[in-house]
Sequence to fold (422 residues):
Amino acid sequence: MVSEYPPSIDQLARSLKDTGLPHPLLVDAARLAISEGNSEDFEKRARNIAESMASNLLTDVINATGVLLHTNMGRAPVDVSTSSTRYTNLELDLLTGDRGSRQDRAPQLLAKACGAEAAMVVNNCASAVMLVLAALAGGESVAVSRGELVEIGGGFRIPEVITQSGAKLVEVGTTNRTRVKDFAKAVNKENVVLNLSVHQSNYRIEGFTESVKISELAELDVPVVADIGSGLLDAACPWLESGPPAWLRNEPAARQTLEAGADLVTFSGDKLLGGPQVGVIAGKADLVKACSSHPLARALRPGGLVLNSLEKIALSYLDRDGNAIPFWRMATLPIDELRSRAEEINPLWVADTFSTPGGGTLPGVEIPSVGLVVPGDYSESLRLNDPPIICRVVDNSTICDLRTVHPNDDGVVGAALEAAVS
Ligand SMILES: *Cc1c(COP(=O)(O)O)cnc(C)c1O
Fold:
């Protein structure tokens, strides 16, 4: 108990030790509670502040939104377990004892999985695009269709990325129609050294439209880079027993884009690839080499934890084992299985719902799913549950979609919803 009024900051901070937060943070909480000055019970108020600080630290959450790649929840869930008592061979060649490259493992496994000569990995797809432009077109001109000068979530704007990379943007065609001769003119008359094709990702232009195929761009005299974004490795989905799901529609895939003639593709690791946050640059070995020897490559390289996690995913692709990749396992869960899980939790709450791929991929796509639905908005009490459960609220009903919930967490979700409702 703290007896003085107002209490000393230090004493108040010490009384909160059981929250498990380090002392300097408890001092902040105590200071804030006292500075508010209006509290009847400083200890209670300071405890409140400390508890909300603790709950804001990075923690595991249960995603019951049905959005498979939820940007607010780190997109794809991945395995990042490593030994805390040993080191890794991150840049060590165990056969020779010489220094190795962190780019020799996961990136090359991914290259194999999508039929590329070589690949390298950076922190995200935004940095992949930036590095490719800086390395292959720094100080020179890059042509992009006016229909593809997009902004993708969180302010990734193609014109700004091009400027930041040191390249000069040459806009070709129009918003709705661009033809290969527009690119040809830019290459011949404006000294364009690279043609960039950007997947529109989270929007569509419909109606009187025309765009240039990668195979047409490949006929021109300069390298073609395709920013496909989502990281679908192969349109045939050989890692899925039942082949590509219908909802993939015409999503561009790395293997087919390279086969069509792209010299490089860039894509995210944490969208349809289902891996950790990385950006992959895959394609012609000499162009990948030019990227990896650019000074920015060092600034953008990912750490060992991420490469470890990516390696597991890449090996699962080569094993054609989609079930080992959490994103693909969840995305392809049969509806009957979801329904029996829901019925096991509470037969009165079972309802059909829709999951979505999310992450700015496949706009408008809905994947039939099954969830628990109860009338009323219980999102707050579920969010404050330990562990937090993030649900969806539609028309004042709480929906917990089971597609994005691991079966091990069914009991936790059921109990939390039961507690919230009663
Ligand atoms: C998502 C996306 C990006 C950005 O990827 P991050 O990995 O989030 O940086 C870039 N280009 C396209 C086409 C995308 O879809």
User: Anything to note?
Assistant: The mean pLDDT is 95. The first helix runs from residue 9 to 14. The chain is about 35% helix and 20% strand. The domain at 62-76+333-421 is CATH 3.90.1150.180 (Aspartate Aminotransferase, domain 1).
